[in-house]
Amino acid sequence: MRNAILLTDRMWSFDFSTVLQVFDGDISPIQKTDNTLDIIAATPRVRLDHRIIVGASPLPAPNGYDLVVVPGIAYPNPLLDETSDSYRNLWDGQTSCEMARTWLRRAHACGAEIASLGTGSFFLGWCGLLDDTRVTTHWMFGDALQHRFPKALIETDVLFSHDETKRIWTCGGGSSSLDLCLTLMRRQYGQAVNAAASRTLLVSSARGESSPQYIPEKSKASEHRGADLSAITIPVLSHPEFPWSVESMAQLGNMSTRTMQRRFKQEYGKSAIQWLLEERLTLACELLETTTLTTGIIAKRVGMSSSDLLRKNFQSHLGTSPAEYRKAHIARS
After folding, report:
1. How many whole angstroms separate alpha carbon 241 and alpha carbon 203?
2. Which of 58, 56, 88, 61 lies closest to 73, judged by CA?
3. I want to staple 194 with a disulfide (CB 3.0 to 4.6 A). Which of 32, 60, 186, 284 is the partner?
4. What is the pLDDT of residues 174-230, one digit of tens each?
5. Which residues are paired to 114 by β-bridges?
C-alpha cells in the first residue's frame, strides 16, 4: 500500500503523530512489507502547532496512491466566525497551499481515497471535494462547515463518516482520529494486523462509524457511577463463545437491561446485541486471516451456532462470504 500525509503550515501535530504511529510506527508484530507512508508538502519544511517543524518530501506525481490523509487545523477557532472569510486566510493566496490543493485534487482524480482528520474537512472543502459528499467534523465546527460549504452533507452526530462513492473519509478529530486510522489500517491490512496494533496501543477496538461524538454533560451526570461498560465488554470479549443475552450481559454490569442499552447507545451508537455481533464478526475475520480452521469451528469459537449462521451474518454485514473473505486476504498477503 502507498499512503501519504499531505501537510501545510498550521496543521495539528496530534493528528500528524496519530497517522505516523498507526501507519509508520513499529506497533504491529505482523510485518507490513508493502507499506509506504510519504510525508509530503509543497515546501521542504512545514510548521505545525507548538513550534514543531516537520521535514517533508516534495509533492510527487499524484498517481499511484491508495490513501492520502489530511490532518486538522491547529487553533481552528477563526473557523467559527461565519460572518467573515478569515478562514480563507489560512490558504488563499499562498502558493504552497494552492499547490497542495491542486495536487490533492489530482490524487483523488487518479483514484486515491482521501481522509481528513477533524477540521481537515475544511481543507477538503476548500479543495472542492465536499459537494454532495457525506462528511463529518468536530461537533463544535459542524455548523461552520455547513455554512462554508452548503453542498456538503454534514453528519456531526457520528465519530467518522465514509462516503464510499466519493472515496472520502472524515472524522471528528481528537481521539476519533485514532479510530479512523485503525479502521483504515484494517481495510488495508486485515483484522489481524489491526488487532495487533490496537493491543499495542492499548485500544480494545476502534469505535465504529456510527458511534456518537458527543454526550451532553447532563446525560453523563444522570448515569450512576457503577455504569462502567468495561465490566461487561471485557468478560464478553474474553468469552465470545458463550451464548450471551441482553440479560446476562446486564448482570455482569450490575445494571438493568434498560440502563445497559442506553449506555451502549451512548458509548457505541448501537445496541448491546449489535455491538456483540460486530465484535464476533471481527474475531471471525481475524481467525479466517490467521488460521486454517473450518468455518464451522470458527463459528463456534465466536459464539455462532453454525457455519450457516456465520455465512448469513457475513453476507448481511460485510457483503461477502467467509470463504471469499479468506481468499481475498490470502491474495492481498
Report:
1. 22
2. 88
3. 186
4. 989 999 999 999 888 888 888 888 888 877 665 665 555 554 443 343 344 335 788
5. 68, 168
Domains and CATH numbers, the chain: 2-198 (3.40.50.880), 217-333 (1.10.10.60)
What are the residue ranges in the chain where pLDDT is below 50? 215-226
Confidence at residue 243, expressed as pLDDT on a 0 to 100 scale: 92
Residue 26: per-residue pLDDT: 66
Determine the pLDDT at residue 219: 38
Distance, CA of 320 to CA of 276 (rounded, Å): 19
What is the reported pLDDT for 332?
A: 67
pLDDT of residue 215: 43
Q: What is the pTM of this model?
A: 0.72
